[in-house]
Amino acid sequence: MTGQGRFEIRIICHPADADRITNTLAGAFTTGPVRQYPTRDRSRIRLYVTATERASAPILRLVPPDH
Questions:
Q1: Do the beta carbons of residue 44 and residue 14 sit within 8 Å?
Q2: Contact residues for 65 (Cβ-Cβ < 8 A; gap 6+)
Q3: How many Å from the N-terminal Cα to the C-terminal Cα in the chain?
Q4: Could you say which of 1, 36, 47, 52 would form a disulfide bridge with 11 (CB–CB 3.0 to 4.6 Å)?
């Protein structure tokens, strides 16, 4: 952990999947810059992302509390 609610994500994937994966992560978390490095065999890439959990949305009551 890098602090309260912050964490590092490491993903190993094929280069063609990198954009889809980073976009999906950005939709689920607040993310920082993506760091990208080749794997040792150079056939895939490693993605490193610092992410923070998003605050949950407020709960709206549409029905009066006495119902």
A1: yes
A2: none
A3: 43
A4: 47
CA separation for the pair 52, 25 (Å, rounded): 11
Residue 66: alpha-carbon gap to chain centroid: 40
Instruction: Answer yes or no: pTM beyond 0.85.
Output: no
Residues 6+ apart with CB under 8 A from 64: none
Per residue in 7-39, pLDDT (tens digit) is 999 999 999 999 999 999 999 899 999 999 999
Residue 63 in 3-state DSSP?
A: coil
**Which H or E run contains 47?**
strand 45-52
DSSP characters over 19-41: HHHHHHHHHHSEEEEEEEEE-TT
